Amino acid sequence: MQQRWRRLEERGAMQRCTPEPRSQSRRSGGALTTLLLTVYTILSKVHSDRNVYPSAGVLFVHVLEREYFKGEFPPYPKPGEISNDPITFNTNLMGYPDRPGWLRYIQRTPYSDGVLYGSPTIENVGKPTIIEITAYNRRTFETARHNLIINIMSAEDFPLPYQAEFFIKNMNVEEMLASEVLGDFLGAVKNVWQPERLNAINITSALDRGGRVPLPINDMKEGVYVMVGADVPFSSCLREVENPQNQLRCSQEMEPVITCDKKFRTQFSIDWCKISLVDKTKQVSTYQDVIRGEGILPDGGEYKPPPDTLKSRDYYSDFLITLAVPSAVALVLFLILAYIMCCRREGVEKRNMQTPENLPHQTQIPQQQTAGEFRMTTFQRFEVNGIPEERKLTEAMNL
Fold first, then answer.
1. Which ranges of 240-282 would DSSP assign to H, the alpha helix?
2. Stronger pLDDT, 162 or 366, i.e. the higher one
3. Closest CA to 205 of 223, 178, 179, 181
4. CB 127 within 8 A of CB 152
């Protein structure tokens, strides 16, 4: 019997021990999954910097796609799973709180992509501009940061000598920045202008030019200014804006008559009164050589800073003068006021004693006039509007 019990206990111990290797394998598998997930998270947050190479004087557009950042915010979506978290972006120059002056950013809603756009300047050629892009998940409060390195290249045809700026009334800036919309607009301009080279130079929202926010009715747009440049003179169609008749119509807030307006009306509503044509070949340089003569100081040579051992200036006397003059004036005014308030009280009290109640109603004072003539002056007390008043009555008596 004891042997049977021992055999049964050994079998039970074996049965109890058999599940342990399975649990250990499950634990090791879960730990491995967690480790892989952690490594994936770290790798997903450490992306290589993006490099872009725009040209100076040419419009630069970079879209911050929400889909690119969705995979960095936990819980990570599975393949085929749709995630629509609200994501916003913050962009700034590395080491500074804001972006460069030529670079702008726009994002209408947290559910739309952000857009960086602008026209690089010739001063930034050869200097890499690092833009820090921080994405915020408004649902999980997670953040992710990327760097965008902008390497500005010099353009051979910069600047294009003939530049025209159009105002499009039925577009917003983010709609105009779309590649297909901007391509359609440049195609329409090219058909009207017929240049060999045509580039978009800059895009500016009407709100940045002092425009008003449109009413939210009838799908109204804020408007956008688009500047383009070409290498050939302006066409006759664009020159029609400068006609006196069209200028008069614009001054009367009427639409000018432009023959090529139909080529834009299918998609773009252009305000021809706000078009600007700039011919840089005719612009005269404002720089003039300095002609030395009367009124111009001679060259003093290199600037020599003052030495470190400067004599200390005594400001004690200036301090006393600054305080003494106002204090003396205030003291004189105080003494005058004290004299009026205190030393003149006796005369006030005497006048208060001679009230109308203490005086008789009529007082006659004889006055000597010429010889043989005596005039009697009578003071009679009246009340006018409840206020006592004494009036003088004169009676002449011939004695």
1. 244-251, 262-265
2. 162
3. 223
4. yes
Q: Is 13's pLDDT higher than 80?
A: no
Crossing angle of helices 19-45/2-17, nearest 10°? Answer: 10
Report the alpha-carbon distance of residue 170 to residue 66 in Å, rounded: 26
pLDDT digits (tens, 9 = 90+) for 33-86: 544 444 444 444 445 588 999 988 899 999 998 888 877 776 655 665 566 788
Closest by CA position to 93, among listed 114, 68, 116:
116
Q: Taking Cα atoms as reference points, which of 69, 71, 75 lies closest to residue 90? A: 69
Q: Are strands 162-168 and 198-205 parallel, antiparallel or unpaired?
A: unpaired
For residues 167 and 271, the answer to whether their CB atoms sit within 8 Å is yes
Helices (H), the chain: 2-17, 19-45, 66-70, 173-176, 179-193, 236-239, 244-251, 262-265, 316-338, 345-353
| CA–CA gap between residue 358 and residue 361 (Å, rounded) | 9
Strand ranges for the chain from DSSP E: 50-52, 60-64, 87-93, 103-106, 114-118, 129-137, 143-150, 162-168, 198-205, 224-230, 276-279, 362-368, 374-384, 387-397
Q: How far apart are the C-alpha atoms of 61 and 226, rounded to whole Å? A: 14
